[in-house]
Design brief:
single chain; alpha/beta; Ubiquitin-like (UB roll); Elongation Factor Tu (Ef-tu), domain 3; Rossmann fold; 3 domains; six-stranded antiparallel beta sheet; five-stranded mixed beta sheet; 2Fe-2S_ferredoxin-type; 2Fe-2S_ferredoxin-like_sf; 2Fe2S_fd_BS; iron-sulfur; metal-binding
């Protein structure tokens, strides 16, 4: 069996298992997900999707009108013909509701809550149900705020291990989740989460990576780096982590440990406040070196507040460089 991640256009991700002799469309249908489908014979193109990662066989039983040679070379597939030869990620050009599926909900309990600094809280939750939770590193879930009907979106900062996952949460004065975590939360408290969600996740590594994190935008990258540490990569990876004040810097020991596990991974951290005591001052863009952009043969991943995302985008344009791929996620803190 191979695991197939189906990413729908509304941000919902569902995972299915597919046997080697089973088409992805048949495997999805068997597990209650109706990928758009019509002829089932490779003739209509209704089930055309895009394979972002993984090895697969498309066979020869489809016609040019349904899938051209150029499209197949680009990574497009017909799920009625596609048979997985490894774990795969497939982008579905339809909403999860159209495909008669929805985000999954899970119940778990707080296993640890720690205030890493005045601005950052580390939260871990654990439960038997989470042992079935699958997600792509970089994705997020909606965490329910206990005592309310509201949710907040947070990226996983770790992979799932033994039914436990972790998050880095910005401590927002007056924030609904922040107030709960700093004033009421204790180990054993119940929490709900729904997902996974999001199109910001680690793709197959085919060239050097430049990872740019702002504040708690570090969270998806620590999950990505855990995955890379497990699987390895022959390409160089560099992370630049920027914060506003010295006390905002967190998880540096963890980054150092990841650097020890990933031979071609390097990182730097910078602080914007000019009165900082940290060796590297300034914004992330001031520490992007020409070799990091590799004349455009680079995949850039960026996660941070909207002003940072816009500043980095503008900086790269000003360099006259177009990265092979540029993935980004903006986030903004929510108050009460």
């Amino acid at each position: 069996m191979h695991k197939i991640a189906l990413n729908f256009e509304d941000g919902v991700t569902r995972f299915i298992d597919a046997a080697a002799d089973e088409t992805v469309a048949d495997a999805a249908y068997r597990q209650g997900i109706n990928i758009p489908l019509d002829c089932r014979d490779g003739a209509c193109g209704t089930c055309k999707c895009f394979a972002e990662a993984g090895r697969y066989d498309l066979g020869q039983e489809y016609i040019e009108d349904a899938l051209s040679e150029e499209e197949a070379a680009q990574g497009y597939v017909l799920t009625c013909q596609m048979r997985a030869e490894s774990d795969c990620v497939v982008r579905i050009p339809a909403s999860s509701q159209v495909c008669k599926t929805e985000q999954s909900s899970y119940q778990a309990s707080i296993s640890a809550v720690r205030q890493l600094s005045d601005s950052t809280i580390a939260l871990s939750i654990k439960g038997d149900a989470l042992s079935r939770l699958a997600f792509l590193p970089g994705q997020y879930v909606n965490l329910g705020v206990p005592g309310s009907e509201q949710t907040r979106a947070y990226s996983f900062s770790s992979l799932q291990k033994d039914g436990e996952v972790s998050f880095l949460i910005r401590n927002v004065p007056g924030g609904l989740m922040s107030s709960f975590l700093t004033g009421l939360a204790k180990a054993g408290d119940s929490m709900t989460l729904a997902g996974p969600l999001g199109s910001f996740y680690l793709r197959e590594i085919r060239r050097p990576l430049l990872l740019l994190a702002g504040g708690t935008g570090l969270a998806p990258f620590t999950a990505m780096l855990e995955k890379i540490a497990e699987e390895g990569s022959e390409h160089p990876l560099h992370l630049i982590y920027g914060v506003t004040n010295d006390f905002d810097l967190v998880e540096l020991d963890r980054l150092q440990a990841l650097a020890a596990r990933i031979p071609n991974f390097s990182y730097s951290a910078c602080v914007a406040n000019p009165d900082s005591q940290h060796p590297l001052k300034g914004y992330v863009t001031q520490h992007i070196e020409p070799q990091h952009l590799n004349e455009g043969d680079v995949d850039v991943y960026l996660c941070g507040p909207p002003p940072m995302v816009e500043a980095v985008s503008q900086y790269i344009r000003e360099q006259g460089i177009t990265p092979a791929n540029f993935y980004y996620e903006k986030f903004a803190a929510a108050a009460a």
